[in-house]
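User: what does the whole thing look like in 3D?
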Amino acid sequence: MSVPFSGTLRRSGGIVSAIGKQLKSINLKGVKRITVQLDPFAENVKSTREFFFLLSTPKVVQTNPKCVVKSDIVCDRQPASIKFSLIDAAQEQAQVKEIRFNSSNLNTLELLELCNKHVSSLAPPEEVTNKVLTKAEKQKLGGGSKKVLKKK
Amino acid sequence: MANVMQRSLPLASTRSPVLQFLRFRGKINIQRPKEPHYERARVIAVTQPKYPELPKARSCFKTRAERTQEQLVNPYNEIIAREVRNWLNHSQLVAIFHMNSISSEEVFRVRVQLHKQNLHLKSYGRQIISQAVTGTQYEAIMPLFHSNHCIVFSPNQQQIGQLLKITRRVPQMVLLGGIVEQTLLSRNELVAYAQMPGLQGAQAQLVQTLNLAAGQLVQHLQAHQGNLVQVLDVHAKGTGSGNSTETTDES
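Assistant: Here's the predicted 3D structure for the full assembly of 403 residues, as structure tokens:
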């Protein structure tokens, strides 16, 4: 009497590796400016602050060095929010000028997932630049028939 | 006869020697032990020790790490908490920043710049700060330490301007709030405090406000005379320039 296998073969690495996985696929090429508005004394700002920190890491910044991450610290206990102002190409694609996350009830992983879903997908595809061919590659492409045998 | 001989002289017999040498020169084998005989294995299995497990109710929702090891309270935390309390009590200015990802070279540069202005950059863990601060008057700053942070202490509250000037050049340090003379201030309030003139400036402003009423009265009394003097001045200048133009025309 055997029951078919159900469940996982590998155990998950926990929330930290999930966050790491999301961070690897984040792409800010379609964003002009990110504004993180938070009140440090309000409730539930931990996830916003962590997300702000993760946006400042070198790998994420490298995806788009022109994108500016600004913080707006307010004192009126309003809920935290993150605003992504899109570049023109991304605006046309998404039909919106900016994307806003109300992050007071989202945790860091959810914020990253939403960011990947809405923002990273708007990144314009990379243009293929002309590759410089080496001598050997040129010979291979062009002079396949003309083989000069070297006499030892 | 032969049996008697065998029984009486055990050392001489060749069949079962009393001393059997097992090891001779070479290395003994302990890494690949021989499978024990069934009977021996049975005895070993029965005699294995069984350790009692914790009652499930207590350990049910704990993770494996929590079940296997308990963290002991480290008395060094108390010493560091005392240091934090000391810093808080003896600094007139305490500023708390959110730290983004920053390289240690930059941190060192900022630390040196701040040190030159008698501002001390410190960072402690949240557990230690909570241990230091809960129950004291500084309990309200606890929400600021949920994420990456650093604290700047200064015994002199006049340095707020210098502090803001230095940290303006560091985009990774985001001012969240601070304590000035035992008063908790938010970020905007701190910036406004920095804009305020010093004590002498404030005193001068007070004197000016006090003299305002009397000054206005004096101004009203002198208004007409001043006006007349100004008009005469303009008139004198006008006739003077008219005379000079007449002389040039004549010549």
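In plain terms: The longest helix of chain B spans residues 212-250. Chain B touches chain A at residues 98-101, 143-144, 146-148, 172, 174-177, 186-189 (CB under 8 Å).
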